[in-house]
Amino acid sequence: MIATIFGGISNILLGPIFIFVFKVSVKGAEIATIIDHILTFIINIYYLKKSKKFKVNKESIKLDKGIYAKEFFLLLNRIMLQLPLPE
Question: What is the CA radius of gyration of the chain?
């Protein structure tokens, strides 16, 4: 929760800086949001590595192609449902 709050505050602060100071308009808000997500991710990973309940290392993160294939087809199905139908 702290990471989300910190990320939100950074987004609130960085948004106007990118929009008004660097004069990049809407792209500035997008850049601030991306930085917000990256900071939140880094803080969460730091917290998980510091925690004694979770072990985060290369061995604990394994790619299971079966799970990713299943998720890909579920995602593909949702994308296809969002496509407009031809008239």
Answer: 19
Is the entire prediction scored with pTM above 0.70?
A: no
CA-to-CA distance for 8 and 27, rounded, in angstroms?
17
- Name the token pair of 46: 């730091």
Count other C-beta atoms under 10 Å from residue 33's C-beta.
Answer: 16
Which residues 6+ apart lie within 8 Å of 43 measured at CB?
Answer: 2, 3, 6, 7
Degrees to nearest 5, angle at CA 31 with 29 and 36:
95
Return the closest-CA partner of residue 48 out of 60, 33, 36: 60
Let me know the angle formed at the C-alpha of 20 by 16 and 22, rounded to the nearest 5 degrees.
Answer: 105
Per-residue pLDDT tens for 3-58?
A: 889 888 999 999 999 999 998 888 888 899 999 999 999 998 888 888 877 776 77
